Amino acid sequence: MQKFGCAVIGSLTQRVRLALDYKIVSASGLFDPDWYVKGQPTISREYAIWHYLRHGRREGRSPSVKFDSNWYLGTYKDVAARDIDPLVHFLRHGLREGRQYRAVRESTVVDSDEYAAIHNSSLFDHRWYLARNPDVEGSDPVEHYLLHGAREGRAASERFDTQWYLARHSDVYISGRNPLVFHERFGTGRETAMSTSLQETLRTNIADWSDADGEIRADPRLQNITTLNKNGSVPSVLVYAHWERIFSSLEDTYQRIVFVPWIKHSGADMVAANAVKAAVESHGIDSVLLVVTDSPILEGIDWLPRGVSILVLPKAAPDLSHEDLVRLAEVLVFALRPEAILNINSRICWDLFATKGKALSSFTRLFAMLFCRDDNNGSTATYADTHLIRTIEVLQRVYIDNTPFLEELVRAYRLPVTLSKKLTKLSPPPQHFEYRPARAEKRRMRVLWADGLTRQKNIVLLQRIIQLAPEIDFVIYGSGDENYETELQLLEKRSENVTLRGTFSGVAALPLSEFDAFLFTSLWEGMPSTLVDIAAAGLPVVASGVGDIPDLIDHTTSWCVGDLQDEAMYVASLRELWHGTPDALARAQRLRKAVLSTHSWPIFKQGLSGDSSFLGAIQ
Amino acid sequence: MSDVSISVILNAHREGLIAVATIKSIERSVEVAAKRGIRVEVICVLDRGDKLTRDVLSDSLQRNVDWQLLEVEYGDLGRSRNAGVALCRGEWVGFVDADDLWGSEWLAFAYSAATCDSREIVWHPELCLYFGARSHLFLHIDMEDAAFNPAALAFTNLWTALCFVRKSTLLKCPYRQSDIANQIGYEDWDWHIRTVENGVLHKIVRNTCHAIRTKPNSLVQQTNALGCLPRGGPLFRSIVQNRVRSLEKSDFLLKAGAV
Lengths: 619, 259
What we know:
Chain A is α/β, with parallel strands linked by helices and about 625 residues long.
């Protein structure tokens, strides 16, 4: 009875004190209800002062941005030792005693709403955080937790174990939000630390296991289970977060995947577009997925069949390392289990083949395309040298666009028949353009040159040709190496017989009928699709005799130059072509016929078809 | 009809004396289960074992009733597990590898959870303590957790192999053989994918834990180093095929002609 009476009196005293505290706090100008409830959806603005007086102090909250409770208690230890609210203490005693107060440090480097959400969270213990993390001393603990602590897996308090929270709730990492901010906004009811019952079970078992297992007994790390790192079944890693987003966006299961580094306007990109087109024709628009792995450049997207799906990894996962992108490609293939994969110059896909090729071959068929050598910072090594020799066993077939390169690989790597028969020549199909010669008397000869401005294309020789033939007008399409662009611009300024027209998006964009001849100056080649397209259109050609070109272009079909550095040979061929125009047109027609007999859409598609081919057996 | 409720399958290889701690943890767990009236048998499957491990297991057979030893020469964990299953008399099966440890509560709690839920479920402990070369805590995810996404199973193995499951599930969906030379491994990951594919749930038993020994050169690490993948199956394709397409379009999955 006595006890009950004391409780009533105690309760009455507390209520009276609370009412007085409410009055003094609300009149102080140091309580901001709007700031106090920021990030705390469960506390109403009207109830804010009551909440502060009843719970706020114990939860380490500050009443407003003007008054930092934690600083006040940290500075005046005598106040911290007493069970009194810091703001109430300041207003009743501190002010009179000349004590200072400080504003909550509002960070300029973190989001102010997130800062307030953590600062005001009952699950963030400022003093505990500083005591637990001595390296944070002198820093603002809230700012530290937002900028570093959460990412480093540091706990916010005994009641909020960041690692546990992330391990238990894998969607939080995927959301990309700070775990405590996430919890305050959306996490009602979620477990924030290991339950005491599970801690007890684990401690009991560790004690049991220690009796029988020396390794457990000898490991001091196991004595304090709360400091052990925690992981969940679902890893908190960026590459997984991207995978989940990609998987949820997939619209079809796709029977075939084509990997490319980008979609530019180059010959290899045209071949890729044609491979996709062939797959679409054979199996339907939803059957193929084009995966772009290295660069978000999509300028050649207009070459692709309308409606085909394109997954652009650099857009989906712009922040991943090469290794993580290979992993992403691996998981994509593992999940989709396509019937076939075709790699056209994607390093990520080549690395995937090299590291997981055997495993992938257990459920899909692997294919690759190779082109001629290229000049890569002084090296002419290609994927044929760096990856083919490690992957050819797991590849079903390797498509190569020219015979000389195919034969070179067989020779260089002494491929046994079992492997060399996997190398298959695949001629790119021509696009169909019409050339209508528009010759008028007393007109100057007009020559078209269209290609990339790279060392391979012998731009130095091109400039010498232009200078050696002032009576011929040269129109240059293309872009590339800045030095070559500058050299050609200077030449254009001082020579009247050259015009630069910049980049072009393919032969379709070239006004072929304006010209009398096409000049091709490459130092090395496979079978360039531009040349195939132009030859198929019927425009007379003067070309370097490299790669597979001499198979098509000889003195009966065009003008083929053997000495790749002799500008006089090229100019002589152009002049001969111009002065014997009827013969030039006849040769061009023979070239056209020859090209169409070996390079056509049915031939290309047939090359990709069959039991051991990318398209499989076509019904 | 057997009066054995749970069959424990202890998969051993060449663990030697390390297996003693495992055996003791099984004995404690069996004892706790026995106090609740649950009868347990233990089948030790020794696959290409050495003499010391055989001696350790034989010693356990002498100390315990309802223990038996099966020796096989598969060199394959999946086949060894299946061989153990073929001998099981219990309705329920619990797996343990001879270098890992069960918490004493495991069998009793798992049995209680399993018998209270009639659905087809594979049960896992809530927590695993990894110890040895590396130490950390590993929290298993429950498929009925709101955060569970089956896409994760294509990315990683979500559960350890030390599960508790109805024998009929194992007969319907046995483990598949690995082929490490051809980069096919992770018999347990593969089995997890296939059970989910077959509509089986994977859930956790609250307040239970196991201890998993980490070694510098474990089978898992060898499998990782060789670039292995599980065999896998059509699970993820069927998820894509059967789900309702989102109307929200991503900026990374495009359609040619729509850009």
